[in-house]
Amino acid sequence: MGLLDILLGRTKPVAPDLDRLFALPSAAVTLQAAAGFTPTGTGAVCFATVEGAAFEQTHREVQALLDADADRTGPPVELAQDGYGYSWLVSRRTPDQLPQLVNDLHAVNSSMEVNGFGPQLLCSLADFTDDAGRRLALVYLYKRGTFYPFAPLPGAGERRDNALELRVRAALGDDLRIEQDLGRWFPVWGAPGL
User: What domain of life is recorded for the organism (predicted)?
Assistant: First the structure.
């Protein structure tokens, strides 16, 4: 970064650190103690859809890798698209298999990155729920290397529970690198599991 960049306010982008995903299991313990949310066993990686044989090959390799896991219960990894045109590679585990789910999310991100599709990666998320049936996702922003909570209001269309999101941010501040810019807490409407 040069002097001109500093004077013009340009900043160097944060390099993604996929190992931060491994902090999710310990953050889940804090989340359960502080807010009563437990993992659902569902997680997903969101990426901008790309056409072409190289991307299809990478997608097939990732899906085969995750589907081959002998420890997997439930349906195999699936590819879904939301109403906004983004693709989601969804992994489903039992709620007590959050570490394995995190391994799945890490493997998808790493494989896409290694094969040159890092710029298409948008975010990864792990879903949580509480006894009242409220849903919450801890979202990892790939390009920022940070997390934020996303809590849609049940039965309220595309509205979020901002108060809950802020409580979760306060509770997880010591466990996860939380995105400080609230303007980057993008809603993930249509995300699988929410």
Answer: Bacteria
pTM, full prediction: 0.86
Mean pLDDT of the region 165-180: 96
Q: Where are the alpha helices (DSSP H) in the chain?
A: 3-7, 24-35, 53-67, 98-114, 162-172
Query: Range of 127's domain?
Result: 13-175
Specify the number of domains making up the chain. Answer: 1
Contact indicator for 27, 102 with CB cutoff of 8 Å: no
Contact indicator for 92, 76 with CB cutoff of 8 Å: no
For residue 35, is it within any domain? yes
Residue type, 17: D
Helices 162-172 and 24-35: crossing angle, nearest 10°?
Answer: 120
Residue with tokens 């303007």: 183
